[in-house]
Amino acid sequence: MDFYSEIEQRGLGHLLKEVPYSFQKFYNSNKVYKILDQLKDDHYGKVLIYGDYDVDGLMFSLIAKDALDSMGIKNYMICPYTKRTHSLDKNAVRFCIQNHFNYFIIGDTGSSELDTLKMLEKYGIKLIVLDHHNTNYSYNDFGETAIINTILDNKIVGYNKFAYSGAALGYAVFDDYLASRGFKHLDNVEAYAVVSLYSDCMDMSNELNRALYYKARQIEQSNLPKYIKHFMNEFQSFNARFIGYWFAPRINASFRAENFALLNKYFLADSIDAIEISHCVSAINDLYQNARSNVNVLTDLVDVEVLNYFVVSDLKTAEAKGLAGIYQMQNYTGLVANKLAERYGKSAIVYCEYNYEYKGSFRDLYGRNYLPVFQKIGFAQGHNSAFGLKIDLFSLDQYLDTLRHIDEKHFIAEINAPIIIDYNYALPDEGLIRDIALYNEFSGYKTPVCYLQKSLIGDMPERKTPYNYKYTWGEFYIQSDFPITFGTKMLVKPIISKNIKLLYQR
Question: Which of these, 95, 88, 93, 100, lies nearest to 124 by C-alpha position?
């Protein structure tokens, strides 16, 4: 299989072409801009910014803050995190009302909270909602609320034009507003938007998202926003892997541990000195390492049922083997599923009894589209290859039996099988590998991941580092978490890093 002919045949050749960034308008842009104009001219109005309880929502808040700074607005604050929820936090609503805020900017949530929004309007609070989640409402339902929702805009334009995350939508809206009013450009803030795109598993093959990617990649590492830069070392660059495997997991670990005081201090405090920054970064890293340790323990202890196409596990089986209780165990289903998928080379389903039902997660390492399959057999919501599951307490046996006997024909047409290039040449084609690495920056949602298939041969010397094993191949190296024996047929994934890497898959 030839890589270039394969992606052209699949209509994916455009992913190797750089996309210029352009300003975007939405159906309700003017409605949002009207409130921002009022805010700009209101010297006494108080503004509250609220972002959802995840990386996307947090990045939205930071973008909104920088936008208000650019407008010269001083009388604002970002709503601190207090409890984990994925709807408009009632504590935040209460805080907004009790502290007499005049403007409420809500990001990455709110589209399904019509009653709450109407109640806020009765208090005379002017509302801006920027969201990308599904809603049962239409724009006409929201009255005076200035809302932009990408799902509603996509319905208006007739196709999936805006595949933005909440923060990317926030960036597009504020960026266009500031430019239209002659304000200072949002310097380097597009990095927050790109973080949110990858952390929220958005479709990076989408033209607008790729434009943001290329815009952010132009930022010198020294000029990246400080909240990101403090987590980078000399061997890293701002790319999909850094975001997905380094930065975002650390922030998610703090949300998962519900250490809101730490998140509020590092990201939301008005001022923080260098010593406090160092302490916060260290504490966030510690939470992440603790989460990893919990994941490793759980992965090693849980019972695993290996099916034809999946591996399945109940987290609670770890407790039966003497494991001391892990706080908020139900928050680890996705992490353990990811680990089991890596270990077994199959898609993984991990579940845990919680609040009189089973809460679970599905993970597929190859970016295949399994979501429609699982929506046919029960509740499934999220992204194509990484989503949440809910199973009725009394229907578990039936659910598992369905997975055990699922027919390949049931789903083979719907999954997004990876592109595998058979490549057993002694030396690598530098241009080919760099192009595959670039392509893989945008794969993994609706777009298949691309791998090289190659055998480990004698002239690929092994080097052990404190973290992994490396096998030299021409000017590149193949990286593995464990030693690979001579003659092993490998699947390797070329990725962009500080230098191009090839990651051993199986």
Answer: 100
**112 and 93 within one domain:** yes
Boundary residue ending a domain (394, 411, 428): 411
Residues in Cβ contact with 396 at an 8 Å cutoff, skipping those fewer than 6 apart: 351, 358
Residue 87 per-residue DSSP state: S
Say whether 234 sits in a helix, a strand or coil: coil
Encoded tokens for 13: 């050749």
Based on the number of CB atoms within 10 Å of its own CB, is 206 exposed (0-12), middle (13-18) or buried (19 or more)? buried
Based on the domain organization, do 472 and 365 belong to the same domain?
no
Helix, strand, coil percent content, the chain, rounded in steps of 5 = 45, 20, 40
Mark which of 383, 411, 439 sits at the end of a domain: 411
Which string of b and e fits 154-170 if b means at least 16 CB within 10 Å?
eeeeeeeebbbbbbbbb
| Closest by Cα among 457, 384, 397 to 424 | 457
User: Would you state the structure tokens that stand for residue 79, as one six-digit string?
Assistant: 């709503």
Distance CA 61, CA 50 (A): 6
Count CB neighbours of 47 within 10 A: 22
Of 501, 421, 451, 449, residue with least CA distance to 12: 449
* Residue position matching structure tokens 């970016």: 367
* Rounded-to-integer distance, Cα 445 and Cα 249, Å: 18
Whether residue 271 is contained in a domain is answered as no
Write out the chain's pLDDT in tens, 506 residues.
799 999 999 999 999 999 999 999 999 999 999 999 999 999 899 999 999 999 999 999 999 999 999 999 999 999 999 987 778 989 999 999 999 999 999 999 999 999 999 999 999 999 999 999 989 999 999 999 999 999 999 999 999 999 999 999 999 999 999 999 999 888 899 999 999 999 988 989 999 999 999 999 999 989 999 999 999 988 889 999 999 989 999 999 999 888 999 999 999 988 888 899 999 999 999 999 988 888 888 999 999 999 988 999 999 898 877 666 666 778 889 999 999 998 888 899 999 998 889 999 999 877 777 888 898 889 998 777 888 999 999 999 999 998 888 765 555 545 567 899 999 888 899 999 999 999 999 987 778 889 999 998 878 899 999 888 999 999 999 999 889 998 899 999 999 988 888 998 76
Domain count, the chain: 3
- Concatenating the DSSP letter of every residue in 306-360 gives E-SSEEEEEGGGGGGGTPPPPTTGGGGHHHHHHHHHHHHSSEEEEEEEETTEEEE
- Any idea what DSSP says for residue 462? E
Q: What is the 3-state secondary structure (H, E, C) of 245-270?
A: HHHHHHHHHHHHCCCHHHHHHHHHCC
